[in-house]
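Structure (tokenized):
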């Protein structure tokens, strides 16, 4: 019934949208006259002025460049679509805020160039979606200044190379996807549909009705707490385009039809804000990048939820951004969505613990938001079966004394693997995907038994936790991950008294003994001091990794040299940990302390940790 009501509401709204769309361009994201409020913000804050100047400066560089060409990399045209979006969005912004014809003329040249492409590569539909969005923004924002012939050419390209391929079942599997493909593709095609609504009202209505009903399928991914299943990098991709879609609906049609009220969606700003440690590095599990950049969508969430503390780290990036900021293809949206942001009101978040369940549960904890030497730990549960996931359930990253000691490789470039014929997108147990060095459990900060891969269909959540500053903690039952290898595995991770970190593993074997490898990936130099203590050092700083267990362990290092010709190199990294043989039908516990002091407390079983659960 809920979906029927939603569709009825959409039908009424979109039927009226044919008339709504008759209003003057521009109608996408920034309406006519709204430039004044944006420019007032630019004048008020030097940080906004800096971004504005960066965009104008980059546009002056773009002017002398030739338009993008239709050159694919492997099976993708995506880098060209993204570059077109970056150029057109910035050039159109520059024209609207300065009225200088040089920006208008260069944007028109780019639009006509891509409109002349034979197609926008519908076999990889993300390419079509981003190109359609690029051309739609230019068409809408520059509409009154474009010649009649240019409008006709660009409009026809939006229809023939953007919208019409999305009606072909060979290309529109994104309509039923539950991941970033749904979000990006629906957003891109919808921008095109809204841009041409006055000339194609029936087609526009059809596309918008379809998009709203389809994009709902991607929103359960944020339930129940806002944790995004595809991780840090794909949050930026999928969620940013979802916000672009919602923002376009609100501006063009006056409503987002309840999309932003989907459970967990408005909470997801907290997820991505908490994923970044005091080193400025993200908890980059799965196919993700590592470094935080300016994130326009986070400004939308901060404004929508009236939570300026979400922008604590973003404010610092605004103040100290580098030249690379202009590589962000939706950078003008930051100024649009941040137009009402009072930078002086941004204070550090009050809470130092964040947890989200869902298909890729995480717990994120820290001792301070303001101290660059603070301790930060992120631990991930979940399943390898999730889109873009690795075999990393139970893995963690750790920052302390201004350095990252426990790290994650993150993603490897897809084309580098696809070009070598790797079956990268098959997530079955015996898929070649799990032979890729960076993707399996042997390359993560977790456990391996008998050199076996974990169970692809296994799942783990955050079973218990503590947000008490005296012991910030999370516990996950990893038993399903090791089905058929051992009987039970639990891992607990805690920051105790804001001084040290403990990782406790409790393992129960079946009728067969098991060889266990405890693994840590690090860039630190490693020195084994004795049978239980390792010294880690980097950039003149040191920390101790101390193991405490009744089991007999052998501390070891392992190289991170790639074993296959398709694996990426991993310079200046190493594995440190231990191996042990756990007898059949026995229970063993293992404690690993990250500490600056050799004195460690007596360990406690997980059952004695003071935790919450639900």
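Design, position by position:
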């Amino acid at each position: 019934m809920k979906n029927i009501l939603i569709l009825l509401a959409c039908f009424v709204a979109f039927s009226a949208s044919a008339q709504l769309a008759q209003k003057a361009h521009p109608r996408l994201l920034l309406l006519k006259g709204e430039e004044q409020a944006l420019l007032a913000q630019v004048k008020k804050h030097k940080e906004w002025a800096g971004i504005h100047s960066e965009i104008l400066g980059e546009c002056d560089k773009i002017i002398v460049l030739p338009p993008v060409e239709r050159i694919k990399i492997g099976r993708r045209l995506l880098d060209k679509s993204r570059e077109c979006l970056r150029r057109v969005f910035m050039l159109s912004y520059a024209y609207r805020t300065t009225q200088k014809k040089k920006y208008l003329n260069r944007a028109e040249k780019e639009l006509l160039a891509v409109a002349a492409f034979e197609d926008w590569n519908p076999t990889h539909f993300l390419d079509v979606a981003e190109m359609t969005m690029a051309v739609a923004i230019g068409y809408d924002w520059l509409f009154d200044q474009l010649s009649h012939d240019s409008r006709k050419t660009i409009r026809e390209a939006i229809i023939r190379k953007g919208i019409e391929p999305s009606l072909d079942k060979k290309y529109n599997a994104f309509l039923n996807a539950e991941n970033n493909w749904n979000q990006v593709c629906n957003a891109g095609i919808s921008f095109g549909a809204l841009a041409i609504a006055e000339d194609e009202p029936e087609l526009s209505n059809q596309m918008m009705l379809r998009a709203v009903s389809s994009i709902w399928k991607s929103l359960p991914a944020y339930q129940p707490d806002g944790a995004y299943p595809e991780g840090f990098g794909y949050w930026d991709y999928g969620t940013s385009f979802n916000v672009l879609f919602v923002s376009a609906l609100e501006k063009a049609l006056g409503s987002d039809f309840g999309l932003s009220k989907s459970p967990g969606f408005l909470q997801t700003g907290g997820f991505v804000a908490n994923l970044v440690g005091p080193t400025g590095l993200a908890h980059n599990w799965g196919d993700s990048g590592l470094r935080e950049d300016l994130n326009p969508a986070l400004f939308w969430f901060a404004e929508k939820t009236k939570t300026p503390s979400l922008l604590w780290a973003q404010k610092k990036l605004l103040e100290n951004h580098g030249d690379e900021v202009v590589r962000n293809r939706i950078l003008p949206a930051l100024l649009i969505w941040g137009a009402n942001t009072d930078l002086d009101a941004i204070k550090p978040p009050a809470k130092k613990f964040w947890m989200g369940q869902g298909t890729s549960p995480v717990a994120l904890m820290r001792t301070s938001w303001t101290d660059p030497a603070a301790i930060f730990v992120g631990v991930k549960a979940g399943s390898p079966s999730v889109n873009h996931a690795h075999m990393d359930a139970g893995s963690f990253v750790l920052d302390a004394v201004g350095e990252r000691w426990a790290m994650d490789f993150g993603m490897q470039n897809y084309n580098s693997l696809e070009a070598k014929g790797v079956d990268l997108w098959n997530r079955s147990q015996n898929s070649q995907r799990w032979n890729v060095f960076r993707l399996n459990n042997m390359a993560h900060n977790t456990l391996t038994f008998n050199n076996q891969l974990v169970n692809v269909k296994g799942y783990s959540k955050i079973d218990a936790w503590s947000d008490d500053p005296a012991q910030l903690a999370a516990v996950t039952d990893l038993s399903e991950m090791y089905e058929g290898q051992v009987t039970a595995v639990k891992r607990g991770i805690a920051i105790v008294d804001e001084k040290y970190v403990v990782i406790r593993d409790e393992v129960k074997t079946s009728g067969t003994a098991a060889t266990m490898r405890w693994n840590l990936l690090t860039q630190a130099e490693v020195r084994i001091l004795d049978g239980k203590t390792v010294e880690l050092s980097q950039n003149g700083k040191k920390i101790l990794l101390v193991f405490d267990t009744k089991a007999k362990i052998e501390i070891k290092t392992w190289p991170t040299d790639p074993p296959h010709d398709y694996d990426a190199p991993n310079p200046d990294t190493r594995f440190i940990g231990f191996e042990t043989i756990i007898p059949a039908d026995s229970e063993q516990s293992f404690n690993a302390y990250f500490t600056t002091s050799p004195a460690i407390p007596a360990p406690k079983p997980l059952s004695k940790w003071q935790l919450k659960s639900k």
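Reviewer-requested clarification: The chain is about 35% helix and 15% strand. The two ends are 30 Å apart (CA to CA).
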